[in-house]
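JOB MANIFEST
job_type = single_chain_structure
chain_count = 1
residues = 113
[input]
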Amino acid sequence: EKELVESGGGLVQPGGSLRLSCAASGFIFSNYAMRWVRQAPGKGLEWIATINMYADSTTYADSVKGRFTISRDNAKNSLYLQMNSLKPDDTAVYYCATLFGDRGQGTQVTVSS
């Protein structure tokens, strides 16, 4: 059974940075493209970024392009999201996910002064 466990969320001031991590288990991580999605209070899921299985191709939503970086370490079965220049609108629960809909329990990111 696939398991995805996110960590690294927290409270950060506007303009600050956070690095989210996602530990994957129960499947061959290196065979899967992965993505980060988020859900802000009262809103639906928003796709943020995708990385292919080889880690040589990434795509980003316009809302985070140039500020966020998705990466992965297949040797560690881990996915990452480096978030810089954070804004209050980035406040959400962040999930790592497969392209088939599997996702973890999420980690809360709050951007506030």
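[summary]
The chain has a mean pLDDT of 97.
The beta strands are 3-7, 10-12, 18-25, 34-39, 45-51, 58-60, 68-73, 78-83, 92-98, 107-111.
exit_status = 0
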